Automatic annotation (TrEMBL):
<dbReference type="InterPro" id="IPR032675">
    <property type="entry name" value="LRR_dom_sf"/>
</dbReference>
<keyword id="KW-0732">Signal</keyword>
<keyword id="KW-0812">Transmembrane</keyword>
<dbReference type="Pfam" id="PF08263">
    <property type="entry name" value="LRRNT_2"/>
</dbReference>
<feature type="signal peptide">
    <location>
        <begin position="1"/>
        <end position="27"/>
    </location>
</feature>
<keyword id="KW-0677">Repeat</keyword>
<protein>
    <recommendedName>
        <fullName>Leucine-rich repeat-containing N-terminal plant-type domain-containing protein</fullName>
    </recommendedName>
</protein>
<dbReference type="InterPro" id="IPR013210">
    <property type="entry name" value="LRR_N_plant-typ"/>
</dbReference>
<dbReference type="GO" id="GO:0006952">
    <property type="term" value="P:defense response"/>
</dbReference>
<feature type="domain" description="Leucine-rich repeat-containing N-terminal plant-type">
    <location>
        <begin position="38"/>
        <end position="74"/>
    </location>
</feature>
<dbReference type="GO" id="GO:0005886">
    <property type="term" value="C:plasma membrane"/>
</dbReference>
<feature type="transmembrane region" description="Helical">
    <location>
        <begin position="923"/>
        <end position="946"/>
    </location>
</feature>
<dbReference type="Pfam" id="PF00560">
    <property type="entry name" value="LRR_1"/>
</dbReference>
<dbReference type="InterPro" id="IPR046956">
    <property type="entry name" value="RLP23-like"/>
</dbReference>
<keyword id="KW-1133">Transmembrane helix</keyword>
<keyword id="KW-0472">Membrane</keyword>
<dbReference type="InterPro" id="IPR001611">
    <property type="entry name" value="Leu-rich_rpt"/>
</dbReference>
Amino acid sequence: MGNRRGLGLGFIFVLAFLFSTTFTCLGDGNASVICSEKERLALLKFKESVEDACGMLSSWVGNDCCLWEGIHCDKTVEGLDVRGYSGCFLDSNEVNPSLAELSHLKHLDLSANNFHKSRIPKFIGSLKQLSYLNLSYADFQGIIPPHIGNLSNLKVLDISSYEDGLMADDMAWTSGLSSLEHLELNSVYLGGAQNTDMLFYMIPSLKVLSLSWCSLSNADFGPLLNSSRILPHIIRLDLGFNYFEGPLPVFFQNMSSLSFLDLSSSNLSLAWNLANMLSMIPSLSELHLSGCGLDNIHLSSPHLNFSRLSNIQHLVLSENLIEGAFPSVLMNMSSIRVLDLSTNMLSSLAPLMPKLLDLDLSYNQLIGPIPTFHMNLSKLDLSFNQLKGPFPESIGNLTALTYLNLDSNRLTGPIPTSLGRLVSLQSVRVSSNLLNGSIPVSIGQLSKLQYLDFSNNSLEGVVSEAHFANLSMLKYLDASSNTKLTFNVSCDWMPPFQLVVLDLSSCNIVNGFPEWLRNQRKLGWVALSKASISGQLPTWLRKMPIIPRLDLSHNKLNGPLMNLPNGETYGRFIILPVLLLENNLFSGNIPRSLCRRTDLEYLDLSRNRLTGGIPNCLENLQKLYTMILSSNRLSGVIPSSIALNSLYWLKLNDNYFVGELPRELGNLHNLSILDVGDNKLSGNIPEWIGVKLTSLVVLRLHKNNFTGRIPESLCKAANLQTLDVAHNNLKGPIPHCLGELSAMINNSGSGEVGYYLGNDGIVEEVMKGVDLKYTTTWHMVFDMDLSSNQLVGEIPVEITALSMLVALNLSNNHLRGNIPHTIGDMVKLFSLDLSGNELSGGIPPSIAALTFLSHLNLSHNHLSGRIPTGNQLQTLTDPSVYEGNKDLCGSPLPKNCPNHKDPTPTTTIKKKHEAVVEQIKVWLFYVDVICGFATGFWGVIGVLLFKKQWRQKLFMFAEETMDKIYVAVVVRVVKITRGREVA
């Protein structure tokens, strides 16, 4: 999409140049003409209706509007040119109808502005003197009004759109444009529109027709495909990126004047007559066949003999399936000046083609060293290949070179000093290679250089003023990710350039904050992250224009944030407005001046020493997607003013916030990340979190003072993939419905979050018993941490349905019962911690099925039986995993198990039940005996205690009985003795 916008905007400037012979220097040479009061007031009303941040209309003052910039007069106002440029544009909800008063307008250009998806005004059709109308890329939406067909004097019409912008239902209105020569409808949806074929034969004067990205197909042209009824006057025809297929239409045979043809992304697999038919167009000099599915077989086929296209000078075959060696058929096309074979699968470079001026072989599979090219080459793009070897000194022989791109290869060695001889160079890109050594001082002689990128290499040495001596045109400088490279310029250095982009991240900047930046007034992007900068922000920085994208993170900057750039922004920049100040030593309060940056979309002040509360004026940042204030010393309650509807990520963790979560956060329907962990928040977990925050992906309430139960409403958070409520005072059971969190079952969470978080997004989670920080991989982590609370009851078996979970931590609660026997269904578990509970029974054998498990803690429970073996469990040899369970046995514990097979969970439960029943029977027997004994004992003894006569009779009976027994025993003994003597 970005490439399409860039091409479209670029073509706007081309159009402006083509028609500059008619409207040169609008506003000049009109001193003798004074516009009417009616026209002046109409223009002032238009000015009042737009937001003009760049001051494009700042000259619109005074009584004579013919002297205003963008206005051309010839007795009356005939030209209005207020097209946007270089990130500057007018901003309005609609085109003010006051322009209808300019009835003599011949030239109207409102392109590249922002009219916020409003409709193209119908009054445009009343400006019947118009010969030039450009409304392209101005963010219009809806159906093109047919009233434009009233403009019979129109010669140039461009209403190209962004994707999902403009559309047409009937193109019959174009028949009224009898004078039209140039028509562009790029990205206007024409699929199914009636009378589309009239574009080709109802406008006899048409020479340029551009219909790319219009969703056209063969059906939209009907009989015209096989008809020769086509005007031969068309010079440029762009039908690229539509849905054409099959043979080439017959009408191309009669287009004898055609010089430019774009059929990119058409399915021409059946067009074997392509070269034959195109050879009938001798004037054809530029041909685009990008993304047409062409491969080596097509190129070598006699039906596609490109060598017959002897007049082609500009050939684009990018995004096809061409592989291997450079196609031999192209070697014979001596007429080629510009050749684009990017995004194919070529492995070898092109041979010397003496007339070639522009060669693009980026995004291929080229190997080997960079060869020697001929001296006429002006543009060379070999980026994103696998080229090896040194950056050749011979590059200095390409004296005509203006553009050089060698990004993302494997080039080694130093940057050649001969590069300084290429005095025509405007752009040098050699990022993401293996280059080393110092940057040659000769670079400083390239007076036309605008773009310089040495980033992500291993360059070293010192960069000084001499490296920039004559770089007066330099706008883009990127030397980031060269950790041994040092920037050492004097504090009073006055650079000769005005940069728009500066990136020196991961370099070494000496002498503190760069003083030379105070003279740079056009900065849109400044990145000085990890640059070893220390000290306070200088006071002069406060008066600098606001820099839309400012990254000073990971340094040793200290002091207050009062000196951040706070002046008027220079222009508008088509970049994500970002302020990154994390990992410094900033102190004091968050400054209220920050609230002036109303366009800010990404704010990170984390890991500093900021104190105080969050200022309420942050509610002014209505475009903010990401707010990160974590790891500071902020305090007080979380204000409701930060409940910005635009927020996708809110990270306030590791501070000293108190109180409850503001209910206003429930209005953030786009919120995907909510992290308020490691604070002193209290109260219950709000019910509205699961009900209203339907986009929530990460919820982190870790280590606060939340009380009450885990609300069942959390089960409605269908996108939730990380739930961390650990280290609070939560009570009650674990809700069974947590097993219904669909994102943790089938990975159905949000995929949009990464865009708003960027690659620097950090989500902290507890896994393997320690705090881990996930950056670029956070979206792949599915985690549930309910540990260190006061939860009771059993572990719900439903939780084992969360098959996407990577980590489950239920430790340090009061959970009872058995570990669910289906725990093995959680096939992606990497970490499982159930320690510090009151779990009982055996360890389920299914736990051995967790092949990714590398951290397990079941310690300090009441588990029993044999420890399962097999698979990943064999690697968990630390006995501490199971300590505190005295009835466990088996490896890795020293306690051996009996030599019998481990019972299944069902058998174990049955035997345990039988044992309990037997134990109850034994106890009942003992109770029965004791009761009988007590009854008999106290039944007799109790009576004797209270009946004296009974006691006397009992003792007399006992005495008499004992005497009888004594006599009987004596007699028996005597008899036995006598018997032995006789024997």
